[in-house]
Each structure stands twice: as C-alpha cells, then as structure tokens.
Amino acid sequence: MTANESTNESSGATRKNDAGQASRTADTRQAVRESESSHAGRESDTSRVTRSCPRSEPILVGEDLTLAYPGSDEPVIGGESLAVELGVVTALVGPNGSGKSTLLKGLADQLAPRDGTVLLEGRDVHELGTKELARRLGLLSQESTSPESITVEELVYHGRYPHRGFFDHVTESDHRAVHRAIELAGCGHLRERELGSLSGGQKQLAWIAMVLAQDTDVLLLDEPTTFLDLHHQLQVMEIVETLRDESDITVVVVLHDIEQAARHADRIVALDDGEIHGYGTPTEIVTEELLATVFEIEAAVDVVDQGPRITPLCPISSSDS
C-alpha cells in the first residue's frame, strides 16, 4: 500500500528553531529503541550492519523484470533482476530517466511487470492481499496526496490502516506506533498543523512519519530527501541508518545524490537507460569509470572513512564518448 492509497482508504518547514531540538533528537533514538519490540518476531542479530557487512540472504527479489507503463510499447526496465539483501540499505542511483522510480514501483507491486516476478520473503507479491502486503512492505512514493485540511497526526494515523479492520477502533498499539513514527521523523512540533499550512519539506517529513507508522520490515523510499534542506536530508538518512542498525529493517531508497548514497547505503545499484550497470558496495560501485559511463561526467574519486568522495571535474559530451 502506498502512502496515497492509505489516505484514500479513509474518507475522511519552516522548522522551529528552538531549544527543543536536542530533546527531539534524544526522543528519536528512544523511539527507534521502542520500535524494536514490535519486530520481536524476527531473529535477533546483535551485530551492527556496516558497509563491510557480508552478503546476506535476499528478502525482496525481482526476477527478469520487464516494466512498462500502460499505453507505452517501450519498456522502462527490460529484463533486469535484483536481489535486495535482508537488513541492509540499498540505494538506487542513476541519471534522470534511468528507471530508478519505475524499478521501485515494480518491487512494491505498484506497477505490474509485463514479464518477470517479484518475490517478498519467497512469495509472489501478487499472491498477497493489499493489507497483507502493506503490513510487510511500506512505500513512500512521489505521488502521495491527501486533503490539505487534515493534520499531520491524522495523516500518520492513516499508516495504521493495514493493522486493523475498516470499522475497528484505534488501539493503544496504534497510538504507540504513531507516537514513535512522529518522533522518529522529527515532526512532533508539526503534529497539530494542517498539511495545507506546511512547506514542501515539512510535508515530506509528515509522509515519512506516515509510512514509518505502517511498522513494516521492508521500506521502499522514492527520493525521501527531495524538498529538504541539508539539515533534514541528514536527519532522514540518519533515520534510515537507525532503522537498519537498531531494528534490522531492510530499506531500498532512490537517491539523486550518488555521494549521499555512498555515505549512507550498504549497497548501491547503478541504473542507466533501464539497465542495471552495477551492484555492490559503495567503494565497488562509485568509481571514476562508472561516473563517466553512467553519469557522463569526468570526476575524481577519493575513498575516505565516510565513503567515496566525488569531485566533479567536467561533463562528458556525447561527442567525446
């Protein structure tokens, strides 16, 4: 279920610069620790997932996927396969129009493949009902919409719909999940604000909180740092890392900034023109050769503790290639 679908099921920033920022950060960490109890059914792994983490079993697999939009003869993704490893952050990167968001939609069962299959924990996603899929996999898309008159808190409660019947009352578990999600997304100060009064970046934080409230083992995020200033971009990527490290959640994230992907992801998938050109760790993928081939830029790459650092030098024109 997408954020948009969750809202439709129910008929229904300027960031404050105050002294509460430090306490909100502490609340964020505590919120994640509390959220671990809701994932107690999974096997415990006390080791911290790092960039050097060994290859783990796949949890989400796309096999020989051909993806195209209705009315189009040309596929966006043609016969590609991808195995998303359990408990790691995988970033999809590539130039505009490379198929990043389309691949994410295919993995989320938002775009039915013309050929190929998508397996979630070994089961074809088409065999899963809408609610069951939404309890296992959360998607933050770029097309999310909702009434401008609802508050941030009301929006986040929509994320709990997969866990109850249409006429069921909100439970204490729902209240706890919503509180954790709002604190984790760092938008507690926006809780009572209507969506129509928020900036684009503030709305993005609200949508992130909503998908976190779904409380799934797999999260697919389509450009979650869009519209956000540098502070909130770092905040969102820290949330992603914390979910991985402390709750063993698997995250697939579309990012435009390949250096941001190199800093925060365990695995990177580089796409160009609907094809996967590389899959591996940041140091394996972010090379001067790949930047020239996929992104058509000449750049210097230096490996530092935080991951590969890119210094763009000049664009490579088609006549140069």
UniProtKB/TrEMBL annotation:
GO-annotated cellular components: plasma membrane
The reaction(s) this protein catalyses: an R-cob(III)alamin(out) + ATP + H2O = an R-cob(III)alamin(in) + ADP + phosphate + H(+)
Stretches the record annotates as Disordered: 1-57
Compositional bias segments (type: Basic and acidic residues): 26-48
Keyword Cell wall biogenesis/degradation appears in the UniProt entry: no
Subcellular location: Cell membrane
Residue ranges of every copy of the ABC transporter domain listed in the record: 60-298
Residue ranges, compositional bias (Polar residues): 1-25
One GO molecular-function entry: ATP hydrolysis activity
The entry's keywords: ATP-binding, Cell membrane, Ion transport, Iron, Membrane, Nucleotide-binding, Transport
Pfam families: ABC_tran (PF00005)
Bilayer topology term: Peripheral membrane protein
GO biological process: monoatomic ion transport
The enzyme's E.C. designation: 7.6.2.8
Function according to Swiss-Prot or TrEMBL: Required for corrinoid utilization. Probably part of the ABC transporter complex BtuCDF involved in cobalamin (vitamin B12) import. Probably responsible for energy coupling to the transport system.
Assembly description: The complex is composed of two ATP-binding proteins (BtuD), two transmembrane proteins (BtuC) and a solute-binding protein (BtuF).
Cited PANTHER family: IRON(3+)-HYDROXAMATE IMPORT ATP-BINDING PROTEIN FHUC
Protein name as catalogued: Cobalamin import ATP-binding protein BtuD
Origin species: Natrialba swarupiae
